[in-house]
Structure to design on (293 residues):
């Protein structure tokens, strides 16, 4: 073991070592504090991470361990650990305030495993880019792998900048304050006034549809009259506004509407990565079909 060339055993030992290191971090410093990665910190971290991937790639011929990272013998064990941890996440109840397996997105072993996979992806992408020979194979390959890398990194680092707030609006009264999940008050860059609450009911009186006619005022001077309802949000200045609730005691006569405001500035990058993977799958289908013909 640990004799060149490294094999699957070494790959599993590296993955196991990351799990152990993650457990030690979890015990010593607690879970990952994603709030500490808010912009511009996450942008700096992303730039540093890309530089680290480039350095590892440039030194791969001098440091054998760096060369090994870009092989399938490192990738397969890492994927096995990632799959096991992801299954564990699916089998346990996930909560924002949970610890260990109950908050896997902040669980150090989970985070380190996926960081390791991102490093491996980066090595594979750079190697294939520099040895771009057969475009029929390389274009779908790069679209799939680069899309996965982009979606993974931006979804993770962008999580710190995502805001999900509740705003309680009263009829005829503009509101510019919202509440976090910890009931902290946040002053918003937009003000919303409830004009009319709308409810349609079934014959038994249960709600069939509820929505709110609202007026939105922004700092940039926009004055928007619109209707927001469940699963049909309105997007204004980077905020998606959803119908969330109302005064259930008043029902159709409610003078209050509860709105959910969501901001996720990194989401377009995540979608870009997903679309790249879809494009890669389409290219594989088309180019593979042409080759068989």
């Amino acid at each position: 073991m640990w004799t060149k060339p490294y094999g699957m055993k070494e790959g599993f030992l590296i993955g196991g070592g990351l799990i152990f290191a993650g457990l030690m971090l979890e015990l010593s410093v607690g879970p990952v504090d994603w709030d500490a990665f808010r912009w511009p910190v996450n942008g700096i971290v992303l730039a540093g991470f890309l530089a680290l991937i480039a350095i590892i790639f440039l030194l791969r011929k001098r440091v054998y361990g760096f060369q090994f990272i870009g092989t399938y013998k490192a990738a397969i064990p890492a994927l096995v650990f990632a799959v096991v941890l992801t299954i564990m996440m699916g089998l346990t109840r996930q909560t924002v305030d949970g610890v260990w397996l109950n908050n896997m997105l902040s669980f150090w072993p989970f985070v380190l495993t996926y960081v390791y996979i991102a490093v491996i992806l980066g090595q594979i992408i750079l190697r294939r880019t520099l040895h771009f020979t057969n475009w029929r194979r390389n274009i779908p390959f790069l679209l799939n792998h680069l899309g996965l890398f982009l979606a993974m990194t931006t979804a993770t680092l962008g999580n710190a900048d995502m805001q999900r707030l509740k705003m309680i609006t009263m009829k005829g009264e503009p509101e510019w304050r919202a509440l976090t999940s910890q009931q902290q008050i946040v002053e918003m860059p937009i003000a919303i006034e409830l004009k009319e609450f709308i409810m349609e009911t079934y014959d038994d009186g249960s709600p069939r549809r509820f929505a709110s006619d609202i007026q939105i005022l922004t700092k940039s001077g926009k004055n928007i009259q619109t209707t927001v309802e469940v699963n049909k949000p309105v997007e204004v200045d980077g905020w998606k506004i959803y119908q969330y609730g109302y005064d259930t005691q008043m029902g159709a006569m409610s003078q209050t509407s509860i709105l959910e405001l969501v901001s996720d500035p990194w989401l377009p990058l995540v979608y870009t990565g997903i679309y790249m993977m879809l494009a890669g799958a389409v290219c594989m289908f088309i180019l593979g079909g042409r080759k068989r013909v």
